[in-house]
Structures
1.
Amino acid sequence: MNKKQKKMLVRIIITAVILVAYHFMYRFLGAEELAEDGTVLKESLVREPFWFILYLIPYLVIGFDILKKAGKGILNRQVFDENFLMAIATLGAFAIALVDKSSDYTEAVAVMLFYQIGELFQGYAVGKSRRNISNLMDIRPDVAHIENAGELETVDPDEVEVGSLIVVQPGERVPLDGVIEDGHSTLNTSALTGESVPRSVDVGDEVISGCINMSGVIKVRTSKCFEESTVSRILELVEDSTSRKSKSEAFISRFAKVYTPAVCISALVLALVPPLGRMVMQLDPMWSVWIYRALTFLVISCPCALVISIPLSFFAGIGGASHEGILIKGSNYLEALSKTKIVAFDKTGTMTKGVFEVDSIHHSSISDDKLLFYAAHAECASSHPIAKSIINAYTSGWGRIEADKEPAVRAIDRSLVRNIEEIGGNGVTAEVEGIHIAIGNAKLMDREGISYKECHKPGTIVHVALDGTYAGHLVIADVIKPTAAEAVKELHGSGVERTVMLTGDGKKVGEHVASELGIKEVRCELLPEDKVREVEKLLSEKGKNEVLAFVGDGINDAPVLTEADVGIAMGAMGSDAAIEAADIVLMDDDPLKIAKAIRISRKCMRIVYENIYFAIGIKLLCLLAGAFGMANMWLAIFADVGVMIIAVLNAIRALWVKKL
């Protein structure tokens, strides 16, 4: 509990103790004893104003803040809210007891007391849900250690420049993204990915900010400034997530704005029309009876259960998902995800590891080593995974193991390279040692007017031409993620009707990977703009209330992520552009989390509708009972506070997503 909640708890206890004391005091001092004929056998020892003043004390102790909020609402012309309803209902109950001289103001104080108990409970529940998300805020590192002349200098992470060498000691959080230059350790990534198993890291491995260094001292060369680091992006996503409301939340907000004035007018009609009608018929108007019913009607009508539990359900759902390494940028995306019927995937880096390796070289007109030299230098400026695999193959000495008995470690000499031009969806052209190099897929060869040889081996085929003459091709193999096939199976088990793969790879590779994963529809050889068109086509084919989700990771996937109803990005290896464009981010790049995210969203929406139907149903029944005099203030308290507590308890269930 926070300080505010502790103070409220003290006020509740004080008020409850005073009410119990007053109960016994009233029996001793205030209660009158009457005979069967109405004769007073025992008179009250104190007069009416005494009890009125006495009960005002606990009423103000427990309710002064509600009265204050109601007064501010009236001054700000925002009259119709739950504070106004509580203030009118309880003050009205006081007035009726005073006019009737009943000396019993317990109901008025009890209504305010139980309302505050409900508010305390709701505040605690919201706090628990918020803490689940706020645990992510603990991933923000406080300091970074820079090694300077053999000594460690402690600075703020946002002061560290890109390329700096930082030291992360055991027990500390990694403050910035970077690459390990010295040392090895194990990292706890649970706050980022939801995975409890520590990850071993060594020299050359990338590390992301927010992880906890568990064992050895590591030195990290920073690759991003703090504002662009993983931890900052996560915090920004989490902080922004609550600002995007779902259709259900927007409906409840609109509903409350119409509903509250309507019930206030209805209560006024209930208090005035029946007594005036009875007066016309020359009957006893029974003002106190009808005013009491109107006040009961007001307490019952308070929309707290809906106004509180619906946003709380979404908040809990987002919190539960974030604990599992699934960052959802807003409740509107959570609601949309629950209606997902079609899921389209990018291939590379999404369903495959994106860790390419040169598998073989075919039809080379020069030595394999020389072909690899030209290919690697032409690709030296590209960040594409295939380009990196070619560069890694060259620098690690691929193809020389048999000849030299050990790999030759070589470096790329960029001074040999000029006029690099990257052609989207085709490949790269460049000059290496004065030779015009064209390296890419069959489309690039057609574009350059170069005849090429087909390859029947599964994999990505990269053709190489030197000065307009075909020189051979490289076969690049990608590795399917171990959970990818299971993820597709889980999606179909979760109610997804269609899974489609969209890839820029050749037909042979795309169909091979799709068949391995159990994906029946695959569209191959797509440029970025082709993927957008394919998604638009899928959007036109889906049903009215169905949602299409696209899963991708590369910078070329950003337009498609934006075009889809719901964009899902891989957060660990994904590009900044993809993460920015996406609506949902999977922090550990595990495709199994897609199905889990859908199950979380559907559980959350199930809870939302349960609360809507339950709260409205109970309130309608109680409102009818109150209007016909079949309900008193105690039933009204249940219809307000009781229903709210039940709805809040139900909403908290959205937090528990571990076993989904």
2.
Amino acid sequence: MSTRHYAHWPRGLPHDITIPATSLYVNLAISAARYPTKPAVVFYDTAISYRDLQRDADALAGYLQQACGVRKGDRVLLYSQNCPQWVIAYYAILRSDAVVVPVNAMSKGMEVEHFVKDSGAVAAIVAQELLPYLRPWLGQHAFRHAVVATYSDYLRAATDLPVPEFVRAAPAALDGHGLHAWRDMIAADEVPGEHTAGPDDWSVFPYTSGTTGYPKGCVHTHRSVMHTLVTGCIWSGVHPEMIALATLPFFHVTGMQSSMNSPIYAGATSVILPRWDRTMAAQLIERYKVSTWTAISTMIVDLLANPDLEKYDLTSLMRITGGGAAMPEAVAKALFDRFGLTYIEGYGLSETIAPSHINPPLRAKRQCLGIPICNTESRVVAIGGTRELDTGEVGEILIHGPQVFQGYWNQPEATSAALVDIDGKRFLRSGDLGDVDPDGYFFIVDRVKRMINASGFKVWPAEVENMMYAHPDIQEACVIGVNDAYRGETVKAFVVLKAASKGNVQEADIIGWCKANMAAYKVPQIVEFRDSLPKSGAGKLMWRQLQDEERNKAR
């Protein structure tokens, strides 16, 4: 194990830390005992105290157990935009000894069906506007109950902020077996049974896509999730007086850990924004004296492009962190010139429940993953092998530490391919190509996996192709990533239409169908019809040839 990065380690921080041997729910219980009246979350000027947050979480936990039959180890879907109910539901599911299955709020159609079927979920907490995408699967497989949340239930204070219509929407009437209104659940005030989940019980199954097609559930325990959130707090100096702006979605591991779990562990406050809005973000930073913000680079680009930015006092910001996509050098400089702040980049995967690497706050490098965090070892090895490479040599990044997942849910072959034993230690193959500089800092060079990075969202071509093959007019489809000035990369699909459909179907028709059946960031922004697609002698689509053709066009 190389220790050269220790020379740049944050002063006073131990290389290894002891993680609490408790469930994640205990973090909320402790903060509620310590800071009962302090705001845990703020939602359009409605402040919800730690006491009230725990009270509602306990009531929902009791309801899940008593009315929905949720038992220890059961999977419960959480399908919503950022809101107080997301936080309450997360901790309620954990309080009931069950497992949180976060569902991307942009998921639709076949995507939602896959989450229901693959996870074996018995229940869901779903936002009202997303219920139509989930309802067709209610009563199928093991899925029997859905608690429906209305964002406006937590608009309890007068506000002059421009609240979006989807947040202001009044509760709709619910009819149908298995549907439960959030407000009825709260009124029932059910008492949960004894909390028995411990550090090695399942806690969260975030889904990640892969080159083989449909998303795979990453099995995490309370211990693995606890490690990255506690390390993040210590590394970044998170404290009870911190005010965090939560703009990254909680259904992604970075938003979940940095903007929700870490503040709750510390007894701090999160100011929640359901969807990205650059003007609203600036207003909230000014109004609540936000001190820390975790954001992807496209959010920073958009904020800095706001022509009215000078109207807002953003001097309270002390730290801006993020990851998901490299911060462009010009944007990093503009951020520093405007706020005097260095963007602290980190690196992690759903398989590591957020960071495995972070830049030291006082010695951050740009467009850099950083160094391995506490209790973590990382190596760059020969692609497909285990031989560690020398400084500057490019290979696959491997990660060993307590944050590495247990494996993919019901996917033993994929788990075996992702994990490798080296010197008696279990390492995760990241699928990312990178190198290490003389200081021990890690950098990404390319990707082993066939993945598109669109504004920090990971798009897996095989998954998009699988869904596109359900289109009645498509005979073949091949998806690649192409350069995009704003998103970094965007999605392009090469399509061969069925003979009877040629001349009757337009590119816009394919894009429209995709919009109705998949998350917006996965939708091909460009569709090109072809009479045929290149194939190898074995009959496999030669996607690399199409990728190379596009790159040559761009030169």
3.
Amino acid sequence: MFPKTLTLQNGTRVELEPKMSYMKFNDSISDRSQNSLFKKLKLKRVKHNKRKDDKLTINNSSLGAFVDTGNLSSISYDKLIKEKRIASISPVYYSNKEDINSYFTPLSNVLVLDIEGLVNEKLVDFLLSKSLTINPTRSKYLNGKVLVELKKGVIYDLVSPLNRNKIIRDSFFEKIPLVKPTCWKSNDSMINLQWNLEKIQWHQDFVECKNSAIVSVIDEGCDLNHPDLNFVSSGLNLGTMLPDGSPTGNHGTACAGIASAITDNASGVASVSNTKVLPLAVQTWSDVEIASGINYSAEFGADVISMSFGVYDSWNFWNYNLIDPAIVYANNCNVFMCAATGNENFSTLNRYPSKHPLVLSVGGSNKDDQRKSIGDTSSESWWGASYGLEQYQNSWVGVGVVAPCLEIPTTDILGPSGYSSNDYYNSFNGTSSATPQVAGLAALIKSHYPQASNTSIRQIIEKSAEKVGAYIYSFDYRFPSSSWNQEMGYGRINVRKALKLAADIYGACCDTNCGGDKKKVAFSVQGSKHVSGGPDVQMKFGVVLLNEGSGWANNEFKCPESGCYYFDLNFVKDSYYNGGTLDDVSLYLVKNGTRVSGAAWSGEGAGKRGTGAFSVMLELKKNDVIKVFVHSDGNPTRHVSQYSLTGFNI
């Protein structure tokens, strides 16, 4: 009936699970109606035998469910597909039979096509000849890729003839995980105090700014009627790409409350940012939905994307080639992104997308300001926040910062259908609860300083993190913002310190409700196409974007007045040289002929396109001189294609 094996885009060969299928419904069906349907068909939904230390949740919803079907024959399949409420039946595959997280379904009636150029009549006619139609609504936010649907039959046999068409470069299944990839753990204990806000040094006065930032919560939607949440719009369902972002599960409402619950309203909980939420509801947790959600967030104008979910590479179902372009697009739209590392206590890897270099990876800390680990003295000793260190896209990636992740009070779906019977839940746990605290902090900074870029906000959060937990934090060229520790990243977030650093950079809060005007940039310059053959040489900048106070001249900054200055240095190393080594290019600052501590290293491997970033605050006297130098490791020639230096008079 279905192929016994499939080979995925990354080369992984997955095996068919013959006793399980995924049924997609034509319309939304309640749990009660599903039970009646499956009773009639003599089937049962898949359920996971939960232990107290195992919070895995099967990914069933009102639009589809995983079902125990036994050995589904052609005859029984034909009988089931004739049931008017069933739109399609898809097989389930796994890459590791012993790991339930690796089980997924490649939908039998959907393909995503990577095409050459734009959709044209010739392509449409070809697709129609294969009984395929383009879904323009679901294709809109897939970075130029096209989602097609098959009305009858199964799509697996069409992959080869489609890929032989010269217009089609590649095709991808839409893959739905058996287990929800949320980073959540929970117990039954209840607390009444938001200890996490005290721990991260949050204060109510911080949210009295205009709070103009928008936090996109890509998750299981939000209760749009919750009185303690403020929405910028009703959002979308990412399965249909149509309104609205109502709950498809409990997880999203809880995440939204931590980041952005209405504060100082004499009701419920306070949040880190008190900003508006864009609720985006996953329907199936497929890779297509995640990519669409990130792209839509960027186009909508969200300032922050909070992602309390992720998958490990070994699960082998999400196609990162669908999601990576969306992350790059959002980053280019100046969106700050953060995601959870996971709760498996892994020391060698983190979940994706938290490990993407453009996403701030968020780990979890306990009430003692240590990494939440297996066997610690906290209330849940059976799980720990992952803290992997690995390479992705030729960049070293690891934990960026940590935030409290135990017994976090937050909003809940109204009534008895949420995590609790109340409208609030006091024990939301896991790196899922840590991530929206970081998202909230990013939104808070953006509200106070709308001119702050996503890169600057990330650096502020990293540099202001508190070095807690009696860990050894040391300087690591792969993590240039500050001293770093593998388990804790740059440290536990500190709201007060982050806002103080932002104020040092941008001056007093520029919002009219906060008083004061921002300090202006002293200078901003760019250069390109630098060629270096070995010894350290001074960089030359060809473009002057801003020169407030005339401090920049002759490829150097000559301090016009004494004070504290903030410098931000960035560069791109091109990939077209040969024979290079890891981290073979660095840029650094020189003050009055003496090298400033720290450097922006390329952070990439041989023959790879690399990036580096370095920022520092310096006390300068009038007429002090700052120059930029480049260091290259020997021969052959190294190429730096783009580089920039920005300086603020704090």
